[in-house]
Structure formats: structure tokens, C-alpha cells
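Researcher: Let's run the pair from yesterday's discussion. Sequence first, then C-alpha cells, for each.
Model: Starting with the first of the pair.
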Amino acid sequence: MNNFLVATDFSAEAGHALHLAQRIAQRTGAALTLLHVAVPSGPGAPITAENLAAAREKLHALRERTQAAAPGLVIKTIVETGEPDECILAVANHLRASLLLLGTQAAGAFRRLAFSSRAERLVRFSSRPVLTVKVIAADYAVRRIIFAADFSPETERAAPGLAYVLALYPDAVLHLLFVAAPGKNRGDVQERIAAFSRRHHLPRATAAVVEASSPALGICRFAERTAADLVVLATRGRTGLGRLTHSSVAEQVAGRALPPVLTFPFAAVG
């Protein structure tokens, strides 16, 4: 059974991530694990037994509310102490989580320590797919999906991950997006996108080529212009050469784009 890990600091944003995790789990039959990492109240302050007991009680209450909303789901809880990034990644790896979900604040809002820049760091270092969520409506539905890539031969390795998303939302419109640097020769990018669409039987997909000073900016602007419900990116990590598969692009998009952003390393889907 798939296992989704939802990291929560009990914020509104983390609540949105849990709501989306619940909805996807109901579609896929995945189990949910709710993780809270208890941190000191200040530098040098201890984490007391009372602090841990309060955290466990709060997480248990969250589990009960989620279970009441989705009676059929298998839901577990974990409370950890330590450096949050390290704990979240360690638990995700230990559970072999198929998806890690995080809440993060919208750009321009006051950025708390938890799940703002943290989400960007976890996107960078996670070996597992990460879904970052800022805010979703109660009736949230995925009708428009953006898959941004450079459509080089290596993009083929991202096809299984994209296919998984499309199987979840078969009626969604898919935009295959390439962001070009201003004034640069676009070469055969339109043909590369069309070939990718043909190979993977995406007759409803539309190709989009936009110019922007950076890939992340182009993706975020296109997501806003098309009212996208989900942005999907595959990354090669910091050693990759492609502009749209560099992990820093995924970090920036996860931090800035308004809709939920799903990022996965090629190794996680190939």
C-alpha cells in the first residue's frame, strides 16, 4: 500500500496540505502518516515531557478529525524531536513514503520558520516526490495541469510520474510548458513537445512556449495566467544541466507558485 507522509505544524497551510492528502489518498487507497516535529520554544530551551504530551494530544485530535471526514482511511501519527528538515526526510525514507506533503505560505506573506523556506529545502533534498500546498478551496478540483520541462531526451524518464498524475485526473487539461530565455533561439522545441505528446498518447495536451528571465518566473506567471490547479516538475538535482530540470527551479516554483506544486526526482519515477 502507498503511504503518504504529511508533515504538519498545525498551521492553516499544513491543514490545506492534509486536506489534499486526504483527497488523493481516497482516490488511490494510500495510507496517511501525520508527522509533527516538536522544536524548542527558543534557543537552548528544552523540550519537556509536557511539551511532547501536548504535541501528541494535538496530533491525535487532528487524526480523529481527519478520520471522521474519511472513515475508510488508514491514518497513523508520529511525533519526533530534532532538526525538522532532517526528521522529515528521515521519516519519509524510513516509511518509504510514496509522497511527502507540506504546507507553505504564499510569497509575500510573513514567512514562519516552518514550511516556508523549509519546503524549498525539502524539495531540494528529498529523494521522494514532494507536494507543496499553500491554499486550496474546499471544493478544490484539478482541472488544469502544467507540466514544465525542457523536453530533452532525459524528460522521457519523467513520463511515468506524469502518467501517474494524469491517471488521477483523467479529465484535466494538460499544458506542456517550455520557458525560453528572452532572445534565445528556441530551435525545435515545438516539435520536441509535439513528439513527447505523441509518444505518451496525450491528445488533449496543449503546447506552450513562453519567454521569461528565469524558468521559475515563467512557470509561475503561466500558472497564474491559466489559473492552473497543479504544477508538475521533475528534477535532476543540482548536477543536472537542463534549465527546467534543475532542482533550484523546483525550489523557487514550490515557494512562489500559488497552486499546489508536485516535484519529483527522476530517480523516484524511473
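Model: Moving on to the second of the pair.
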Amino acid sequence: MLVIRLFRVGKKNQPNFKIVVTDKKNPPRAGIFVEEVGFWNPLTKEKILKADRVKYWLSVGAKPSATIYNLLISEKIIAGKKIPKHKKPKKKPAETK
């Protein structure tokens, strides 16, 4: 199964991410991917996305990760509602003695 996810590059404390299409079984840090479809620098907020290639891979059946899905919505490449990435934990019920 193909996925669209982030691939971290860059030095320590200076993250840069390639947005790549890869097989789900490949480890995220292996560097084995089918195609690079974008770039994201969270420090400078620079984003470069190949919208036509992203739409192609989504039409073929590639699934985006939650972060990529939210990024595609914010860049208006796809329409939808963002996925809440960090949910608050449920409170445990009070124990009775």
C-alpha cells in the first residue's frame, strides 16, 4: 500500500522534511521512496508541493498520513475537515474504596 508521508532530512535541531510517496512497509528513515512530491521547512514555514502529482497519487490510491492530510487541506489541494492529530486523553473514573 502506498502512503504519502514526511521524510526528515537536515541537521540536528534544523529539521527539513521531504514529502514523499513510499510503500507503507518501508521504514520512514530508509530513504527508499517512489517519488518526491514536495518539501516543508517548519522553521521558515516554507512549503513547496507539486499539487498535480499529489492529486495523481491520491487518485491511484495512496493514503496520506494525518499530518500530510492536514497540510493538503491548509494548502487547499484537497477539500475536507482536518484530522485532530493530538487528542486530549480521557479522564479515568474516580476509584471507589
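Researcher: Give me one sentence on the second I can quote.
Model: The longest strand covers residues 2-9.
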